[in-house]
Amino acid sequence: MLPEISSKENHNYKRLKKTATDKETSIFIEGRKLLEEALKANLRIKEIFVDKDSYSSLPEELKNKNDCQVIFMSNLLIGSTFTTENVPDKNDLIVALAEKPEWNFDDILKSGKDIVLLENIQDPGNLGSVIRSSAGFNIGGIILLSESVYSFNTKVIRASAGAAFSMPVVSIDDFNNFYKTIKSKNYTFVSTSSKTGTEPDKITKNLPHVFMFGNEGRGLTDGLLQASDKCIRIPHLPKIESLNLSVAVSIVLWEFYRE
């Protein structure tokens, strides 16, 4: 059995700490529950970092995988790599690195389902919650436009409760090309506004839709508002200027899902 890493000077520890905030290499998975969700989503787990005393509790399918390397690391060091404010107890102190799925726009189109488009979303908690709601309400995929938060940010993964591992999320830079392609597939563009528009239950439900939601502070830009075929307003008391982004998304998606 390999020796257990117990020093922060070890190159594997340093590599793991870097990967936790790196967008370019692997998905950083924190804890047993999210590891189980990654396995359900059929992600390829490349490496697992676990305390020797916890090795026996690993899923058998991971112990027997030739392409999954198990690296022993003390619980103290594993806990220091977590990006959460509160480190879980030792039974959940497992970290894994998984291969990122290569989703593209065609994967989303093939589903034939409704699509969510998010413009310049900054809060990882919001994106994670939107991914979770999208999975729950049968959305085919999510399009991120402009400088939106990274979809495999550890906070996004936690807020999505692991749904980020299976919900296709694709970033695009050119809205015009996306618009032309999706319009040719008979999708209806639906924007959202806190000030004006039609209530969700008045919108035709039997067409594929692109639901567009804007930045947490500014909402959708004028260009996207003008490109929409319909605009939805969620009625609420005037003492509240607007609803939280992920709440608004959930309300709209539920309204269409229940039909």
Throw out a few tags for this protein:
18% strand; 60s Ribosomal Protein L30, Chain: A; 2 domains; alpha/beta; Alpha/beta knot; 259 residues
Please provide a written account of the structure.
The model has no long low-confidence stretch (mean pLDDT 89). Helix 6 packs parallel to helix 10. Helices cover 32% and strands 18% of the residues. The protein folds into two domains: 11-98, Ribosomal protein L30/S12 (60s Ribosomal Protein L30, Chain: A, 2-Layer Sandwich), CATH 3.30.1330.30; 105-257, SPOUT methyltransferase, trefoil knot domain (Alpha/beta knot). It is built from ten helices and ten strands. The chain is elongated and about 65 Å long. The strands form two sheets. Strands 7-6-5-9-8-10 form a six-stranded parallel beta sheet, sandwiched between helices. Helix 7 (154-159) links the parallel strand 6 and strand 7. By secondary structure, the chain is of the alpha/beta class. The relative contact order is 0.14.
Summarize the topology.
Blueprint (H helix, E strand, L loop, with lengths): L10 H9 L7 E4 L1 H9 L4 E6 L9 H4 L5 E4 L2 H7 L12 E5 L6 H7 L3 E5 L4 H13 L4 E5 L8 H6 L9 E4 L2 H9 L4 E5 L16 E5 L8 H6 L2 E3 L12 H13 L2
Parallel strand pairs: 2-3, 5-6, 5-9, 6-7, 8-9, 8-10
Antiparallel strand pairs: 1-4, 2-4
Helix pairs in contact: 6-10
